[in-house]
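Thread: zinc ion complex, take 2
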Amino acid sequence: MGVLDSVGTLLAEIANLIADGQRILSLSDKRHWGQDEREQERALDSVLDEARKDFQELGPLVNGRSQYEHDRRHDSMEELRAIRAKFQALTDKLKDWSRSGGPIDPTWVRETYSLKRELHRAQCRAAMRVFTSAREASQRCLGAFIVQRKQRAPTRDAKAGIKPDENTYRRYFADELLACKNVGAFQRFGDQDIAFVCDFCDGHLVWEDIERMPTVRSSTQAVPPGSSDKPVSLLANDSNWQALALSNCGQHQKQIIFAPVAIANHIIPTHGDWEAKLLCPLCEAIGEQPQDEDDDEEPYRPDEEFDDVKSLQEHLEWQHGSSTLPTTTTADNNCCVM
Ligand SMILES: [Zn+2]
Ligand SMILES: [Zn+2]
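Output below.
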């Protein structure tokens, strides 16, 4: 133990501790079980399921499973060792309980779920460290990369000759939202804002003054998939990055950046920062196309970073503005909080 720890060995030890807990429960006399014992069993099952799933999914994203498994970066080792100690403590408590009998402590269920969350985030961060070390600084976060991969699904399918029907589109949209939920969580931020906090980099993306996060793009609302000949794209283009939201007090509607578009383009915050910067997906797409050498103008800088969601939105509106002009009303003075 210690010097030769790696992501793989520590995760295996944690999995063994969870399995010990499961075994203790399964060997106890189920005739005396109540709701709490059953919930404890479910909680342990779900930790192990998620840990396994994370391990299987994250490995291939970071240059192959073995790189992730054998990684021994200091921060990842520290985090996983701390979590292992917590699982050890939980298993010890379960052992004591099985010896002394009586009802189980119902607070252990909550403890187990919070350990599940810690373990999930530790795996995300460990994978991200492998992911970023292979690239240059200031790049897209692994969480962003995962969402972007989902957004490429229609293009991938099209190349493979798959013609999407309405159900396929519905699945694309659902998968995109699910990918966002898998890489982080939305939460209220202050009185009026909503933030997305990434599990991988801890970066926050903040949408100011909105009541709820819209779950569909404005373009999809206007032209539902299947009703037009034009294929729907999930990758940001000049007409599909917006979503219609209600301001916090419900006084006016405004166009905001559709959450998955921002999430798929965020950068790991630099040390000490909490807010994630963003890349412009439209500039990036243009940067990937062959450039016209006679073009003197240089309006597109694929490497430009934007400090927050708001400044990326301003850039999108001014630099890539097209048929869909922002409908943000500037008359904020009738807002109920003012
Ligand atoms: Zn991130
Ligand atoms: Zn741009």
